[in-house]
Amino acid sequence: MPSRRNFRPNFRRNSRREFLSFLAASPLALAQSGPITDPKDALNVLDFEEAARRAVPIAHFAYMTTGVDDDATLRANREGFRKFQLRPRRLVDVSKVDPSVDLFGTKWPSPIYICPCGYQKAFHADGELATARAARAKNAVQMLSNTTSTAVEDVAGALGRAPWFQLYAPSQPAALEKLVRRVEAAGCPVLVLTVDQNGGRNTETQKRLTKADTRVCTNCHQSVPGTPDDRQNRQNRVMLAGIDNTGGSNSPSMTWEIVDRLKNLTRMKLIVKGLETGEDADLACRHGADGIVVSNHGGRALETGRGAIECLPEVVAAVSGRIPVLVDGGFRRGTDVFKALALGARAVGIGRPYLWGLGAFGQAGVERVLDILNAELTLAMKQCGARSVGEITRAFVV
Ligand SMILES: Cc1cc2nc3c(=O)[nH]c(=O)nc-3n(C[C@H](O)[C@H](O)[C@H](O)COP(=O)(O)O)c2cc1C
Predict the structure, then answer these.
(1) Helix H segments across 8-166?
(2) Does residue 297 carry a catalytic annotation?
(3) How far is the CA of 273 from the centre of ligand 1 (A)?
(4) Whose CB has fewer CB within 10 Å in the chain, the N or C terminal residue?
(5) Is the pTM of this model over 0.90?
């Protein structure tokens, strides 16, 4: 092979076809090849990000992509995976591998689930319905955000079963009870209480990028997002319709008492989402939680925290098998998922990857994202010599 510096193509001697293939393989052409235009063309889930950036209005993409402050926790979620390496075992018969998992008595074909993400109609006209149809096609768990742009009853229709419902707890007991009763009536088997947004946040990247959007917000929105008027209008959002939530949700005065209250209020399984420490994991168990999601809200809550994968070992150790531990934050590869399973997670959530798929291609994009990650996980299992999720033990990571 000639070195790049010494390589001088002789186009006078070579044919036009060779010249064209030289151009196509040049770094310049590759850089200009542009984003994928069909979900089938994606080689990995990151390929969807640029396609979504082009398809989604910049102010909405800003909401999707942002972390907080300097986005350090957002980056830590990705960098964390580099701190763990895989230890493969050889000569295991991996002609068949089974990535299925049991969650609260239901068997799912994959441990990869869809995280609750708000306002999905901001990314695609079909919003949560497209996500639900994809989750139905792939038989994946869908957690529906409390700030969904589509009612839980309609999402249940598209999904073919009720989703797991993520709750931002209203502070007034009457409002909390009304919302919980509605979610129960829709048939949701699991309630996911998010506890990492009670102190407010500074989504600077969102604010910066939004300035580049020259459209008039009030052409589509009732009020300009983020303004006091908008906060007033939250009262009308789809899951709060008919509920007096003047006390607001996610009160900074919330304590573990909310977990006790919810356990008394409902028979739905209760998961606490947004824990990062062994101490809190232990408290969650003591207060009767049925599960935990280790999460920093995709780097959208506290700045300069650890990557979610780095928090997982201490949470798993503190829980000590009492309840299932789930995790999300920065998962982009099957090997990332494999590492989390090896560190003791029962299931792994994805947020932005499926939002990129949704924003760029709707349902087909979400399906392809799930397919790619599941194929990569199966490959990692084969390469490591683990035939089932049960066989993925701590010995596979160092
Ligand atoms: C645009 C967006 C909206 C989100 N909305 C919610 C929400 O309403 N409720 C919630 O508990 N988490 C929400 N999250 C956090 C996700 O559930 C999840 O924790 C996070 O996205 C996982 O990280 P990842 O995006 O790197 O995969 C949101 C995340 C994003 C990117």
Answers:
(1) 16-25, 27-31, 47-55, 58-65, 72-79, 127-138, 152-159
(2) yes
(3) 11
(4) N
(5) yes
